[in-house]
Every structure is written in structure tokens, then in C-alpha cells.
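#struct-pred
JK: can someone run the complex with fe (ii) ion? inputs below
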Amino acid sequence: MKKTLSYLIPIMLCFAVGALGSYLQTSALAEWYPTLRRSSLTPPNIVFPIAWSVLYLLMGVSIGTLVSRGDMSVVRLWLFQLLVNFLWSVTFFAMRSPLAGLITILVLDVLVFAYIIYAASRRPLASWLFVPYLLWLIFATYLNGYIYKNNHSTAHAVQASTLVRQTTINHDKVMNYSMPTLPYSADALVPLMSRETINYHYGKHLQTYVDNLNRLVVGSPCEGMTLENVVKCADGALFNNAAQVWNHTLFFDGLTPLQQPMPKRLQSAIERDFGSVDNFKEQFTQAATSLFGSGWVWLVQNNDGGLAIVSTSNAGTPLRDEKNPLLTLDVWEHAYYIDHRNRRIDFIQDWWKLVDWDKADARMKHS
Ligand SMILES: [Fe+2]
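RT: done, C-alpha cells with the ligand placed:
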């Protein structure tokens, strides 16, 4: 009985830590984690609970083999590493701090390595049972480090210009439509746009449109097309979701925490067609405030090269009219309700400070 308990108690402890850690991770995995720039080596989400379940089991059996022999000296080290293991879930997922997570997991690496050495001198089996855990931790350390490096605000500032060129609307040559990558971190636009707004607007609303698109396109006449062509081909619910994915991609891609002066080429075109940049902003703002209900306001380039302001309701998009959208503003309430409640005008004024003029300019076609 005592021997059975020596195995069961550590396994139950591991189970409790795993369950509590998973609970802490739930909202982060839904809202925050998808907004992070992650390594291409990151496995699908389903791999993590499976891997951790196996590792926790091995972890429990490992200490059980030592406890059942009456060797209590290593128990404290085992418990300590389990506590730090839990702390990693707290720092990375609950606190959403990649830096604190990285420091914690590095400490955990050292503790687990120390356990392996310590256990090897007492019972080699206990030591070997921990080796997969250490290998997984080294991999997790790399993934955590990558997230820290590539989502750190300083790193973003350096990478922003590169991503301007990398992020394109026609990103989905693969026909399983995926979330567009944000060219900034979730909190990079604070205080003009909060992390909570990004987490909901990008992490939940856009994710839902992407999921619906992937579900609805199967078996439709538009299956296998690029996103842009699905928008042009579809109607009904498929059009609504495809267009919302396309529109939101342009919207999020058109924001920047590092706003630069408007490029001369775009400025000249705006002055030519609206009289001045101030006139353009005034007309655009007027269109955005007066648009009834949900919709979008656009700066588009017509076939003759001239610029125009266009408003569309709901999921409407100028793509259907063969216009070239340069810039768009989402005036659905979900875009501003968290930060500005019902004050759309305040949202518009903040949005002007986030517009990435370089992107709008880059989308202009030579006429
Ligand atoms: Fe939206």
C-alpha cells in the first residue's frame, strides 16, 4: 500500500499542476497566444497537452521509484522543480510575460538537469525517466525565447519595415485560409488601441471569420481559390466571412506604432484629388462618422489612377468593384467599443495616429 502511494501521490501532484496550469492557459491560448509571432517549429496546439501528459506521468513514476526505496533526499528537489514548472504557466500564460517565462524556464532547465544528475547516482531508471522532460524543456525554452525576441517592443521596431514588405493580402496561396500575421505586438498600439481590443478584435472576431471561411468554402464553387477570388466569387455567408477576413487583413496591416510622415507620392495624389491632406482627412472622417451601422470606409484608387473615398456597409468591399483599396477603417462597433465605448469619433481620431502611410503608398499602382 505504501509503495503504491509513493507512485500515486507524485502522479496526482503532477496531474494537479497540469490541470491548474491548463486552466491558467485557457484564455491566453484563445486571446493572446494567437497574436504572438512564433517560431515555424511551433507544433500544433494539440501536441502540447499530449506531450505534457506523458511527461508528467514519467515525472511521477521517476520520483516514485526513489520514494518507494525510502530515498527521501531527492524529493525536495523534485517538488521544487514541479513548483517552478507551475510558475512557468503563471509567468508566461497568466502574466503573459515572455521575459518572465524565459527566466523561469531557464531556472527549470537547471533544476531538471540537477535532478537527473542527482537521481543517476541513486537509481539510473529515475534519471532516465526525466531525460525526455529535459529535452522537451530545451525545445520549450527555444520557443519561449523566440517569442520573447520577436514580440519584444524593441525587436518590433526593428522588424516593422521588413514585415511591411512580407505581409500581403494575397498571403493565402495555400487554400486553408489562415490568420494574417500582425506586423506589431498586441500591446504595441497602446494607449491608442489597447491590448484587450487587439485580443478581441483580432484574436476573436477575425479568428471567427477565418474559421467560418474555412468551414463554408468547402464544397462551394469558390473552393480552392485565393482569398481575393473567393471574395469576388462568393455570396451570402461565404462572401460575408471571406470579405471580413480580407477587409480585416488590410485594416490590421495598415496600422503601425511607428507612424512616419506621408510619402511624397501619396501626398501629391491626395492633394491632387482632395485639395489638401487636411481636406482628405476631414472628408474621410465625415464619411466614417456618418456611416450608419456597421461597415468600412476606404481610400481607394480607381482604374484611372484617381483616389476616392468609399463607404461600404457590413462586409462590403471595393474589391468587388475592381477598385484598388489603399487604406481602410473598420467602423464596426467591435473595433472601438472596449476602448471608446460608443464614441466612434474618438476612435477615428486615435486611428489617424496609427495609420501606416508607407503601406497605403506601397499599394498604389502606377497609372
Ligand atoms: Fe472588425
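RT: quick notes.
The first strand starts at residue 295 and ends at 301.
The pocket of fe (ii) ion is lined by residues 201, 205, 248, 330, 332, 334-335 (CB under 6 Å).
JK: thanks, will look after standup
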